[in-house]
Amino acid sequence: MSAGLNTAQLEAVNYVSGPCLVLAGAGSGKTRVITHKIGRLIEAGLEPKRIAAITFTNKAAAEMRERAKDLIGKAAKDVTVCTFHALGVRIMREDGQVLGLKPQFSIMDADDVTSILKDCGGTTDAATARQWQWTISLWKNMGLNAEQAAAQAPDDNARVIARIMALYQERLTAYQSVDFDDLIGMPLKLLAEYPEVRERWQAKMGHVLVDEYQDTNATQYEVLKHLVGERARFTAVGDDDQSIYGWRGATLDNLKRLPVDFPNLKVIKLEQNYRSTSAILRAANNVIQPNPKLFPKTLFSELGEGEPVRVVDAVNEEHEADRAIARIQSIRGGQVNPSKHREFKDFAILYRANHMARPFEQALRRANIPYKVSGGQSFFDKAEIKDLCAWFRLWINNDDDPAFLRAITSPKRGIGHQTLGQLGTFATQYKLSLFEALFAGSLPSAVNTRAVDGLHEFGRYINDLEHRARHTLGKTDALAFLLEWLKEIGYESHLYDGEDNEKVASARWTNVLEFCDWMAGRCGGEIEDATGTDATDTKNLLEVAQTISLISTLSEREKDQNVVTLSTLHASKGLEWPHVTLVGVNEGLLPFKLGDDDTTAGASQEGILLRLQEERRLMYVGITRAQRSLAVSWTKRRKKGRESVAALPSRFIAEMRLDENTVKEDPREKLKALRAEFAKRAADAAAQAKP
Ligand code: ATP
Ligand code: MG
Asked: Which residues form the UvrD-like helicase C-terminal domain (predicted)?
């Protein structure tokens, strides 16, 4: 296991008998330490199933699983490699009954939560509901329940939100469901308050490894502490300069608390960066330098000076996109070493916020360059598509409770939350799925009679749809069926009623129609078997629906695609690409508006300063994703609504101090020089041609 590790990394890998913290800058091989340490632990005799490695995203988990497999082979498959949230799900599936939760509890996603909150707080305004959601989430991450939040509320607004939180929590309980924050909060409750549960999990966990430790929040830290217990066999790796989730409750205090809570903590620092050239690393170090230091560290690289970091100033967003794509094309078209670091997957375009992707997507499409948008919303995440898929899921599996709740309320069919709450309680009591509960003889005792009729009608309708879908074959029939169904449930008017902005509603309806068309196209005549022997086999609509509802899970597995990556800076954490372009590096975007938006309005000077520090860390994360070349671009004008307004370069560009030793890109100068060169050659040739 010692191949490709330096002395400090080896030390971290070989120390298996107690708590260990690897604290080091970007690209210094922290994640590599974790993967190798999994192998080392197995070598040392620990059963793979007693090892848990916790990553920050599902994608990072998938990648780590892959790397561990390459390194240690089959044994890797029994190692738990997942996010804190996924681990939480596992703990709750096994032990949630103690808290009154059945094993097939449902997980509400952000959209579900917004709609429940709208209902609890009696508002139709999604922005308000999201603001509540944000606050409630923050409280939960701080380990506060509604009562505690109310007790320490600083003002009336907070007290109102705390009341809504109480209602919201009641409703989740009635639905046998949890939100993302509960996936951490509830396991914590289980581990903290139920000694037998805690002991069982501690016995299961031989060694726990945590990547991106700087971005854990207070509750996650408590979960970790309970999991490892007094033996404290764990390895945490992190970089205080890359803490970029403060806004979601992550806290650097977790780094400070480790040596206090674990006095025998072994702290290891890594100083060599294996990812980036010196030019890139220097820009990164300069940017982060003004931030206060939690632990002093210096990073160096032996990869050579490399190309200078480039600054690109564009006229507007479209121009910026064209320049970024031109850069990709020019690097790909270069003459030296044509095969090296020039594939589409070697390029990434990174930006502050999701909505900034659009001009780049358009430019890439125009240039016929394949790409993927990561960290953003995929088509299958759109609310209207999820609505449709919920119905399909319910046809396929009547016992899918989250699908049931989504379908029965999209569109609303006069069955209120109170009824659904009663149905939920009843289902839990008799250990039934919500759908099964509809037809239980004793249901009327739990729900008022008028509501019972509505519920029965819904159940019969689902059965009917299921039957019809099973007998629908061929594109024409499938499309006709889907459109008829949408009409029956009044989905189009539901979209228009739920949305003040007609344009948005119409775009949603178009998505729905496109989706149905695509789905119908897959009905019938699809060749099952690659050999073609099964060419006559056709899929009915129900079977198509089944494959489709799997697609969103599948897309996570599409790795190794040779495509350009478009990503938010947040989602780029931990990753690396040979060529990176950071775009929209303007004041007001990166750093994000300071002082005049919702989250910082009324914030103190100190609060704003802390925000600026986090923004600076975000810039640092962006810069350090680049291995060989980096360009940073900003625009002189940007769109604000329909207007185009003047914009300024980010202060971070100046802070990179590129002028010390690098040149700015100026294509006009380059063109001028090229023209002069050609003119000279032509003149020389002409002179030579003369006798
Ligand atoms: P980040 O802070 O961005 O998460 P990290 O500290 O986790 O970075 P890694 O992703 O583990 O860094 O490593 C960065 C790159 O350096 C990877 O390509 C990795 O394979 C390589 N690397 C790490 N350690 C070594 C080493 N000892 N020898 C050669 N290459 C290494
Ligand atoms: Mg890493």
From this structure: 278-574
Q: Report which protein residue has its CA nearest ligand 1's atom 28.
A: 4
Residue 120 · residue 111 · CB < 8 Å: no
Whether the predicted pLDDT of 232 surpasses 70: yes
Q: Is the CB of 32 under 6 A from ligand 1?
A: yes
Q: Is 212 a catalytic residue?
A: yes
Question: Is 625 among the catalytic positions?
Answer: yes
Catalytic site includes residue 497 = no
> Any idea what DSSP says for residue 588?
B
224: left (phi over 0), alpha (psi -120 to 50) or beta: alpha
Query: What residue type is 506 in one-letter code?
Result: S
- Tell me if 31 CB under 6 Å of ligand 1: yes
Q: Which residues contact 312 (CB under 8 A, 6 or more apart)?
A: 320, 323, 324, 327, 581, 631, 632, 633, 634, 665
The pLDDT assigned to 668 comes to: 62
- Establish whether 211 is a catalytic residue: yes
**Of these residues, 63, 112, 119, 212, which one is catalytic?**
212
Which ligand is located closest to the Cα atom of residue 275?
A: 1
pLDDT tens, residue by residue, 422-443:
898 888 888 888 999 998 888 8
* pTM of the predicted model as reported, rounded to 2 decimal places: 0.75
Q: Is the dihedral of CA 365, 371, 376, 377 positive or negative?
A: positive
| Tens of pLDDT, residues 352-374 | 998 898 889 888 877 888 888 87
pLDDT at 536: 36
* 26 annotated as ligand-binding: yes
Question: Stretch 662-683: mean pLDDT, rounded?
Answer: 63
31 is in an annotated binding site: yes
Q: Give the Cα separation of 386 and 689 in Å (integer).
A: 72
What does the pLDDT read at residue 568?
93
What is the C-alpha to C-alpha distance for residues 628 and 626, in angstroms, rounded to an integer?
A: 6
Q: How far apart are CA 111 and CA 382, in angstroms?
A: 9
3-state secondary structure 87-126: HHHHHHHHHHHHHCCCCCCEECCHHHHHHHHHHHHCCCCH
User: Does the beta carbon of 572 sit less than 6 angstroms from any atom of ligand 1?
Assistant: no
Distance CA 591, CA 606 (A): 16
| Residue 581 counted as an annotated binding residue | no
Phi–psi pair at 517, nearest 5 degrees: -65, -45
Res. 53 pLDDT band, cuts 50 70 90:
very high
Q: Which domains does the chain have, with CATH numbers?
A: 7-93+185-270 (3.40.50.300), 106-175 (1.10.10.160), 310-357+562-666 (3.40.50.300), 380-526+535-542 (1.10.486.10)
